[in-house]
Design goal:
Blueprint (H helix, E strand, L loop, with lengths): L2 H25 L14 E7 L11 E7 L16 H4 L4 E2 L14 E2 L6 H5 L31 E4 L2 E4 L2
Antiparallel strand pairs: 1-2, 3-4, 5-6
Length: 162
């Protein structure tokens, strides 16, 4: 090989190695983590801990939310610091999802009447009947089962369920 060819191959090899290590240095460069703290005006809101069905007892927890997203109807820790103790004997008037904010309209407390009285539409009536275990369904119906009543006659009065 001629001297000029060797010099050209050597220069190309050095340039190739330089490019290789330069690119590897860019790819393996450690990422710089920038930690930025942003302070927001937050408030604690009472939410359902787990999914709660109609008439079930409540299970709550406090959740931090931005003050801009807090509805005035929500139970906030600033307004109700002892809310969990105050709502211990309440039941759900309507089903609630886990993490859903709690409002007074979604709960029925002791002495406010039963859930049935709160959820019946206007113009509808509910009656109770005495049922013995021997004449009833015999534990085939369980709590939260839905039963349809089509027509019941009581002393000539017709009751229609919708």
């Amino acid at each position: 090989m001629k001297r000029a060819q060797l010099l050209g191959v050597a220069i190309a090899g050095v340039c190739g190695l330089g490019a290789f290590f330069g690119v590897m240095g860019l790819l393996n460069k450690p990422t710089r983590v920038v930690k930025e703290e942003i302070t927001t005006n937050t408030g604690q809101v009472l939410v359902a801990r787990a999914e709660i069905g109609l008439g079930q007892s409540e299970s709550f927890r406090w959740l931090d939310k931005p003050q801009d997203a807090v509805n005035p109807g929500y139970m906030q820790r600033a307004n109700h610091p002892n809310a969990m103790e105050e709502l211990r004997d309440t039941v759900a008037r309507a089903p609630m999802l886990a993490g859903e904010p709690v409002t007074a309209a979604k709960l029925v407390g002791a002495g406010e009447g039963g859930v049935l009285a709160q959820i019946l539409p206007a113009g509808m009536h509910a009656i109770s009947t005495r049922i013995k275990e021997e004449t009833g369904v015999g534990r085939l119906n369980l709590p939260n089962d839905q039963v349809d009543v089509i027509l019941t006659r009581y002393r000539g009065i017709q009751w229609h369920a919708q």
